[in-house]
Amino acid sequence: MNPLKNFLFGGNAPTLATGGGIVLREDNRMLLQQGAFTIWLDAPTDVLLARLLAHTEERPLLKGDNPAARLDTLRQQREPLYRAVADLVIDTAGLAPEAISAMIWGQVMRGA
């Protein structure tokens, strides 16, 4: 059985922070739509690039000569897929983690 499916439908209400490429597989997108309240924490490309370049050893897809162009390509490829599965989209640019948490909690309590 698919590990993601086991996790989502295993009887608990999990919180799962996925890798960015999870939406590339159709079966994963279907599982996220069926078994989860999916929140996409988005930010403009320049904000994401600054965050990611601080940890390039953990981001092999951004290694190389032009990480900004690579990130743009990844975003163009993945953004429509994220939008398709997201129940809630939050632009995190300039927000502290506490503010993001409060926004998520507020939306969940309102039944987003």
Number of helices: 5
Give me the side-by-side strand order of the main sheet. Answer: 1-2
CATH fold naming: Rossmann fold
Structural class: mainly alpha
Helix content: 40-55%
What is the count of distinct domains? 1
Count of DSSP strands? 2
**Average pLDDT figure:** 85
Q: In CATH terms, what is the architecture?
A: 3-Layer(aba) Sandwich
Amount of beta strand: 5-15%
How is the main sheet built? 2 strands, parallel
CATH H level, superfamily name: P-loop containing nucleotide triphosphate hydrolases
Instruction: Output the helix-strand order.
Output: HHEHHEH
What does this protein look like?
The chain is mostly helical. It has one domain: P-loop containing nucleotide triphosphate hydrolases (Rossmann fold, 3-Layer(aba) Sandwich), CATH 3.40.50.300. It contains five helices and two strands. It has helices at residues 3-8, 26-35, 45-53, 67-85, 97-109, and strands spanning 39-42, 88-91. The protein has a two-stranded parallel sheet. Helix 3 crosses helix 4 (67-85). The longest helix is centred in the C-terminal third of the chain and has 19 residues, at 67-85. The chain is globular, with a radius of gyration of 15 Å. The mean pLDDT is 85.
